[in-house]
Design brief:
Chain lengths: 463, 235
């Protein structure tokens, strides 16, 4: 049941630290890196957003592939020298350093904690100091996205207490504030509030502000960093609330963003996909199947048309993965709520190809059907977390699956309740007039039950 | 000092709830507000008010710090959520309550009650509720809220309700039902008709659901002819 859901990152223990260090000298800075950080630092100071974007998106990847395939980048202490020891640049560099580490290697516990510290320092600078930078939206999105990802990753890691070494347990006890859920949520909330982004979006509707029109960039000599981080933090909050199972609040956090239009959230493909994926998933869990179907259909069509342009990008794999997951979610929604007219042809043919057979089986509502619902849900759902601190009492257990199991259970329970409705739908398609008694007989339920079933059928389709 | 007048008490109550709602809107991720939120649940129960946002906020804080969870408060939140039907508040709350807590007797009972309400099995609901008086009687207004929901369900699917169907749905019979019907006829536009065979027929006010010709738009819902087919069946 849970195989698809298993945590992807390999567990890092203290032996792995040494393996990481083999052949890696944190103080050695190749010439190409000296040049990279020097140029990037200058471009940031001069606010050359285009050049920053090129370096961030392309040069960083190229150097990573060429020189740092399975080692970290040089330490921040070693490169600081080449960038005037600029505090803010160093925080930004370190953020990229950790992101690279998470992507290519397995972080140790100490590294996870250090990364948290770096985010705290970086975020506090942005929140409390006047930051005079313009950074590309891609970078600002990646910061928020990575922050939430590392939080999720930490919760998963921490919930597997069983094989933790003594040193790890000691570190966990000592640094009990690292990646605590209050901190994560409050940083995201602080960005939303301090940036005033909700009021900006409101005023934009009345023509009193410019934000979406400039893609969030500030053309009057100011900085876009706080505003855009505030904006993306709304998506970050939606994501965290989905991980906690609070779909209602998650959707509320996203409300200021009008997803029926283009916006800054569509300016970065990763942000676009993450937003709609979580929006659709939250609606699915709230039984708003029609809404979920609509949005999944739109984004899947968009991905189909545009994915070729992202083949070289570092996000390509993620784009493909989310694409597949959303097809699975769409298959679920359509099996629970058949709505042929809402799915565009291209998307529909892709869907038939991937899940045609499974969808036919899901609509039979037998044991096999439930197994398929289970399988698709487990494949496509977010990696739910248990946000609370672990118990250090013996015996140490793994509880990393608890959150997922609960959401799956409640989802399957809902599928079961839908069983009744599907029967009604089938019969109504076939019979134009039939007495209640006869229909009840065919469906093998008693009349009162059938009466109420019709009510829910109507509630379901008409409201 | 003297005793507070009821009006002053009410004003104070309003002040407290205003502050809690503000807290939830402005500073929800804050462990210090947990006691305020718990008090607010008790206040919702005693003053027959309701706030989903505040209750979700509390359930989240319980998730963050499970050792501070009060199962009694959680049970009260769930009962209030049941009373909010047809809103899906009950499931929203369940998503946030750990599985091991949901396995406790009182929660199993509440889940069964919610299941009966969601599938329209009112007779089974009232039978089960009678067995669990201690849970449901702790929250004033519970019976009336469920009766309102039942009537809402009836009004969506019936043009004319046979008296026994209504009686079963709202768990009122005999003289009490007579009085209830008189009250509704006088105040809510219900019409009491003599039906053939088994006594009264109750006609609820027209709306777009029990009279589909009143429905304004059927954009992506079931085509109108499907709906009109159903109503003759329901009688």
């Amino acid at each position: 049941m849970a195989t698809n859901y298993d945590y992807e990152e390999a567990p890092a223990n203290y032996d792995e630290t040494h393996r990481q260090d083999l052949g890696y000298d944190p103080n050695f800075v190749p010439d190409s890196v000296k040049s990279f950080v020097g140029h990037l630092y200058r471009h940031i100071r001069e606010k050359n957003v285009y050049e920053i974007h090129q370096m961030y998106e392309i040069s960083f990847q190229t150097l990573s592939d060429r020189l740092f395939k399975d080692t970290p980048w040089p330490s921040v202490d070693a490169v600081a020298h080449y960038v005037d020891n600029d505090q803010v640049f160093c925080l930004l560099y370190r953020e990229m350093w950790f992101r690279h580490l998470y992507a290519r290697l397995s972080p140790t516990l100490k590294q996870r904690i250090d990364s948290w510290d770096n985010y705290c320092s970086l975020f506090q600078v942005v929140l409390h100091r006047v930051v005079n930078m313009q950074l590309p939206n891609q970078w600002l999105w990646d910061m928020v996205d990575e922050f939430v990802y590392q939080f999720q990753s930490f919760c998963q890691y921490r919930a597997k207490m069983k094989n933790k070494s003594e040193q790890e347990i000691a570190l966990l006890r000592q640094y009990d504030q690292a990646w605590n859920v209050y901190g994560v949520l409050n940083y995201l909330q602080a960005f939303v509030e301090k940036s005033n982004i909700m009021q900006i979006l409101e005023q934009e509707k009345e023509g009193l502000e410019q934000f979406t029109a400039t893609d969030g960039y500030d053309y009057s000599g100011g900085s876009n960093v706080l505003k855009v981080l505030g904006y993306f933090s709304m998506v970050g909050l939606l994501r965290v609330h989905c991980l906690l199972g609070d779909y209602q609040t998650g959707l509320k956090c996203l409300l200021p963003i009008d997803i029926s239009q283009q916006g800054v959230y569509t300016s970065v493909i990763g942000s676009h996909i993450t937003t709609i994926y979580h929006y659709g998933f939250a609606n699915l869990m709230l039984r708003r199947y029609v809404e979920a179907i609509r949005e999944f259909n739109k984004i899947l069509l968009y991905i189909y048309k545009t994915k070729q342009f992202h083949q070289k990008s570092p996000q390509y794999e993620q784009i493909l993965k989310k694409n597949e997951q959303m097809y699975a979610l769409l298959a679920i929604c359509l099996s629970l709520c058949p709505q042929v007219k809402l799915v565009e042809e291209t998307v529909n043919s892709q869907l038939r190809e991937k899940y045609g057979e499974k969808m036919a089986r899901m609509q039979r509502y037998d044991d096999e059907a439930f197994a398929i619902y289970d399988e698709l849900f487990s494949y496509a759902c977010p990696k739910f977390i248990t946000p609370s601190a672990p118990s250090f009492e013996e015996p140490l257990v793994n509880y990393n699956q608890d959150a997922y199991r609960l959401q799956l259970k409640l989802f399957l329970y809902e599928v079961k309740q839908q069983q009744l409705l599907s029967g009604v739908r089938t019969f109504l398609k076939v019979y134009s007039t039939i007495s209640l008694g006869k229909l009840a007989n065919y469906m093998e339920v008693d009349e009162p039950t059938l009466r109420w079933t019709f009510f829910f059928f109507l509630m379901f389709l008409c409201i | 000092m003297g005793r507070e007048t009821p009006k002053q008490q009410q004003q104070q109550q309003q002040q407290v709830s205003y502050t809690v709602e503000q807290l939830v809107a402005v500073n929800p991720y804050n462990p210090d507000i947990l006691p305020d939120l718990e008090n607010y649940v008790n206040e919702q129960v005693s003053s027959q008010t309701y706030s989903l946002d505040a209750n979700l906020c509390l359930l989240r804080l319980y998730q963050f710090e499970p050792e501070r969870m009060s199962t009694q408060i959680v049970a009260r939140i769930l009962v209030k959520a049941l009373m909010a039907m047809p809103a899906p508040d009950f499931s929203l709350c369940l998503f946030l309550i750990p599985e091991r807590v949901q396995m406790e007797e009182q929660f199993k009972t509440l889940i069964v009650l919610s299941h009966y309400l969601e599938t329209g099995r009112f007779r089974q609901f009232w039978d089960e509720a009678a067995k669990s008086r201690h849970i449901v009687e702790a929250v004033p207004g519970f019976e009336q809220a469920i009766q309102t929901y039942a009537i809402h369900v009836l009004s969506l699917t019936y043009q004319k309700i046979p008296r026994p169907v209504l009686a079963e749905a709202i768990n009122i019979e005999g003289l009490s039902l007579d009085k209830f019907l008189e009250h509704q006829a006088a105040n809510s536009g219900w019409i009491l008709e003599k039906g053939h065979g088994r006594g009264q027929l109750i006609i609820l006010p027209r709306n777009e659901f029990n009279h589909p010709e009143l429905k304004k738009s059927a954009a992506d819902s079931v085509p109108l002819e499907h709906i009109t087919r159903i109503f003759p069946i329901l009688g």
